[in-house]
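Reopening this ticket.

The earlier resolution said the output was attached, but the attachment link was broken on my side. Pasting everything inline this time so it's all in one place.
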Amino acid sequence: MPSTHLPLLQVVIPLLAAPICIILHEKTLTWLFTFLVTLTSFIIACLLFQHAAQDQVLTYAIGGWAAPWGIEYYLDRLTAFMLVIITGLATFIILAAKHSLETEIAADRAYLVYCAYLLNLTGLLGVLMTGDAFNIFVFIEIASLSSYALISISRDRRSLYAAFKYLILGTLGASFILIAIGLLYAVTGTLNILDLAERLPEVGNSGTVFTAMVFFTIGIGLKAAIFPLHLWLPDAYSYSPSIVSTFLAGTSTKVFIYVLIRFIFTLFGIELSLEQVGMNELLMLMSIGAILYGSFQAIKQDSIKRLLAFSSIAQIGYMILGISLATAAGLAAGLIHVFNHAIIKVSLFLCLANIIYYTNTDSIKQLAGIGRRMPLTMSLFTVAGLSLIGVPLTAGFISKWFLIKAAMANGYLAIVAVIVFSSILALVYIWKIIEVAYFHPETEAVLQQTEQRQTPWLMYLSLFLFIGACVYFGVQTHINVGMAEAVAADLFRLQP
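Inline output:
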């Protein structure tokens, strides 16, 4: 039984630690401090996960004010599952940050990255922990504002454009979410999510509730970069520092997928949102569009960062596809991919961070022959790429296998064809990189640049941890699959 204050500490510790980075200022000291803070958050998340795994719901009333009058933190298996993902990624990504940031931002600005990193983590953890709809909006804004800062801090001036683009679209998405919450409050008089879920059936299928659902779906679609509301994501991933791209790819969109799941299955309910309104058909169309569009766009890219960004759009489509099936098996498959894709995409971005540290470029053409100069990194990139494709004995295969099973159980053979076809497209764009790296002659740029530095061991340590996870969770699935299936069963058991 964890301490009763752990739900609060999960959010408060990184929040209080963020301004301390500014006080410490020195880059090595702030890096070490940030690592210790994220490690503490991860340990707390594991303790909460252990509690939730025993099928126990934990609530925490802020200031002693009981819900629905006060703000409540709420921990169930879904929350605990996501907490472990987000804090685990934040902890082990930061291992590689110290050296990676040296080549991509000014040395005297490193402490600002760590401050914004912890603020972003605070926002994401707050979204997961709170049981209050308005507080979800508040924490979303904390995460978003710090994301804009993280993206814009790169030496590449295009990062300012990417951050501004994300700012405009992110603000639009947040406004839609806030309007949806306001409409729900207007018809129910409460902001507590569980209380909202109880009162909405009394309101009935009113136009206000339907409008709130539409606004909420658009807002979350923008925040989660769900096709065709994804326009900010390629630039944000492409022009931000590599560690920022890695962190955002692994965490940000996953948390907004969580919000979508929480509102559909806990607040609105499956019968209203997916069946009566027909949101499942809309989400299914969006997911198929995301899978095909993202995969085809990835094939066309020369920048590996941009290629991985479009790949992320396609992978988000898999997650939404699982939700749209409106079955426990489909939701479990979507959650499995939330977990597996997080470690796969972080692995790929960390490989790229090593390459950029070594060569100062992510252009596929300029990296010809890099496989012979960086054999270890490119071997690990190949393993992560195979996992993204969905080769057996990797985490990516588990995700796609469960999605295919869920689709076939519903009779959606066309969706099975889309999943298989998209795996072939993933093979094309991953092979595009591997072919140039191993089978093309080394460019003059690679020969000159790779003589300048060697990849630090901390960057390799972080990378090995995630590559190991890609293989481990492709063989031992009791944690990711077991917890995802338990979460899906819980959410469907709550349905009237």
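Reporter confirms the inline version is readable. The first strand starts at residue 58 and ends at 61. DSSP finds 22 helices and two strands in the chain.
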